[in-house]
Amino acid sequence: MQQIERGIFYEDSFLGVTLGGLVYSHGTILIDAPLRTEDARSWRATLLNQRGGANRLLINLDQHADRTLGDRALDCIIVTHEKTAQRLRDQPTIFKGQNIESGAAWESYGDSIGMRWANPDITFTDRMSLFWGGPEILLEHHPGPAPGSIWVAVPEEKVVFVGDAVVLNQPPFLANAELSVWLEGLDLLLSDFRGYTIVSGRGGLAAVSDMRDQKKFLQKVEKGLERLANKNASAEATEGLAASLLSAIEFSKDLEEEYLQRLQYGLFHYYTRHYRQGVFNEISPEDEDRR
């Protein structure tokens, strides 16, 4: 666990996503959940040792299984955006894991199949403020990576957790994305959040250069998909684009297959949703989850 400011921590050693913890006199706010039950216990115990108040609250930054499947093990009230909550409530109670080869972390964790989802308890639409015995904590809706994506900011300390808005040394998840909105969010980070410590949902602390690289990557995705659409290409043609895009990212080569699958899956579904809807009877990622 790494400390950013007094009472503000992050953890990026567990399987899944980068976690956040805000520890104040009223209690602990957890940002996203570890996938593995044993990691959830360890994370809870680590934060308890910081001697905050007795209350616990969990915030999910979007609906991705990597950050929500472990919610139940944290055993506390859950806060999400209303679109994330609706997405989670629409799923079967027991996770069946049909989206194999989407390049997600849960696919490498065999015990994820059969885990039970935990439904959110509190939702909001645009912005929500929390006062937890410390500085004000802001939850803001910033769709882009997913319809219900949010950021958690502590303005007084100039710290913001941005989830999958910025990912480090890996391709982003694109299946549920809106690229134009995502790019607007990155512009906002580069302007209104200057001087902030930016905590990526996958990779830890993000520098300004990381945000610029993320923006350039998404612009390449947008242009590549537009070229395919102008040629009236099929969704299967996005496979070639995935390989080209992956070559622009620096990562450990043992992750190449996983990351290529992630891009192929995301590009296929994004292209289908935006450019081929009604042309082919292709299946959305949401429909696959419900089968």
What would you say about this model in short?
The chain has helices at 37-48, 65-68, 71-74, 82-89, 179-191, 208-230, 238-246, 256-275, 285-290; strands at residues 2-5, 8-11, 19-24, 27-31, 55-59, 77-81, 122-124, 127-130, 137-141, 150-154, 159-167, 197-202, 204-206. By secondary structure, it is of the alpha/beta class. The protein has a 7-stranded mixed β-sheet.
What's the structural blueprint in terms of helices and strands?
Layout: E1 2-5, E2 8-11, E3 19-24, E4 27-31, H1 37-48, E5 55-59, H2 65-68, H3 71-74, E6 77-81, H4 82-89, E7 122-124, E8 127-130, E9 137-141, E10 150-154, E11 159-167, H5 179-191, E12 197-202, E13 204-206, H6 208-230, H7 238-246, H8 256-275, H9 285-290
Parallel strand pairs: 4-5, 5-6, 6-7, 11-12
Antiparallel strand pairs: 1-2, 2-3, 3-4, 8-9, 9-10, 10-11, 12-13
